[in-house]
Amino acid sequence: MAHEHPHPPHASHHGHAHGPAPVDFNRAFLIGIALNSGFVLIEAWYGWQINSLALLADAAHNLSDVAGLLLAWMAALAARLRPDARHTYGWRRASILAAFANAMLLLVAMGSLGWEALQRLGAPEPTEGWTIITVAAIGIVINAATALLFLRGREHDLNVQGAFLHMAADALISLGVVIGGALYLWQGWAWLDPVISLAIALLIVIGTWGLLRQSLHLLFDGVPEHIDLAAVQAWLAARPGVARVDDLHVWAMSTTQVALTAHLLMPAGAPGDAFLRDTSEGLREHFGIAHVTLQTATTSLAPTCAAPTV
Predict the structure, then answer these.
(1) Domain annotation for the chain: domains and CATH numbers
(2) What pLDDT does 265 receive?
(3) Exposure winner among 20, 65, 176, 190, fewest CB in 10 A?
């Protein structure tokens, strides 16, 4: 729905449109945290009992994912806090911070796993193949089930995407551990345990890099990747009565909400509320920009910011 704020003639005009409420993932976070916390205890116990680096490393990684899920959940809850006089945008950016922290947490966990695997590679140790296979198989089920809880929201919310990647990565790790346990039983290759751990760590680092890059980009008010800034400027410039678009800014308020501000040079005079409402709704429908603030003027306003290159 669009909201217009009437102004006297020749004053600024603003239009705001707000998108639908985000999907509630409270239940998904709660189930995911409970399942993975229990599995961490089981996996760490058996890894310690049979001296398996793969199980211990996987348990440590699962523990980091529990922390990541908690962080993502807290960010989702914080984003719902209403704006106030001190925080006029509310706490929506917490979701972007959580996505960045999740990516960092995953990369640090994989770095630790890779380092330990390299150390163990120089001195492989015997372990118990069937125990590894059984525990890791349980991990595949738990992690895959948790990832499915976040499947529907991963394309629309970077925070939920981070949670999905964590759980999908864990399922991949557990699968690699199962394969390693089976090959150990077949050939007795003790070096497989650290080699598989190292290979999986490398794959996950490659997969997580995109999440880190996107979240860091949004933290610095970068234009969200799904927004074509040149297309937005061209669309605004083509609106009836608009001679030029100045000071166009597009940034992410959260992992799901995008904001826009712009100065519209309109020599013919004030366009009226209908123009602002239609423009705001058009930006939401065509580009997914839900929070729009437009200022109109009959003469060029002195630029307060460097114009973006589009």
Answers:
(1) 2-19+224-297 (3.30.70), 26-219 (1.20.1510.10)
(2) 92
(3) 20
